[in-house]
Structure formats: structure tokens, C-alpha cells
Design goal:
InterPro entries: Bact_HTH_transcr_reg, Tscrpt_reg_HTH_GntR, WH-like_DNA-bd_sf, WH_DNA-bd_sf. The chain is mainly alpha-helical and 77 residues long. It is 45% helix and 10% strand. It is built from 3 helices and 2 strands. A hairpin with a 3-residue loop joins strand 1 and strand 2. The chain is globular and about 35 Å long.
């Protein structure tokens, strides 16, 4: 059995939503508190998941504005 960290599980779920177009390019991700409630994890886990999505080049975070999708299904060729 493979161990999967919670932040990876959350990041994968969000990445699937982005790739499916459920969260479109330019769309804003819910805030940390909202995501923590949805995925039943801590805000720190959500923060780490968003960090993972930034590392993958899927989202960008603007201080005081939120986290926005910068890549998605439409970008794949």
C-alpha cells in the first residue's frame, strides 16, 4: 500500500478540477479556510497543496488577492 500525504491528495483533487476545466484558467481558487473545510484538512495542509500546484505551474498566488489558475486543459496540446 502506497502512503499518500494529505497535501498531495488535495493537490491532486484540485489539479483534476483545473484540468477538467471545473476551475477555468483565470479562475480563483477558494480561500484556505474554505478548502480546508471541503477536504477536511488543516489550513497548513491546504497551504502545502497550493504550494505544490504552484510548483507544477498550474496556479499563481497574488498577495492579498488570492490564488488563480494560470494553466489548464486548454493549454494542453
Amino acid at each position: 500500500m502506497e502512503i499518500v500525504y494529505e497535501y498531495v491528495r488535495v493537490a491532486e483533487a484540485l489539479a483534476r478540477q483545473i484540468e477538467a476545466g471545473e476551475i477555468p484558467k483565470g479562475g480563483r481558487l477558494p480561500n484556505e479556510r474554505e478548502l480546508a473545510e471541503v477536504y477536511r484538512v488543516s489550513a497548513g495542509t491546504v497551504r502545502r497543496a497550493v504550494q505544490e500546484l504552484r510548483a507544477r505551474g498550474l496556479v499563481a498566488t497574488l498577495a492579498g488577492k488570492g490564488t488563480f489558475v494560470i494553466a489548464g486543459a486548454a493549454d494542453e496540446s
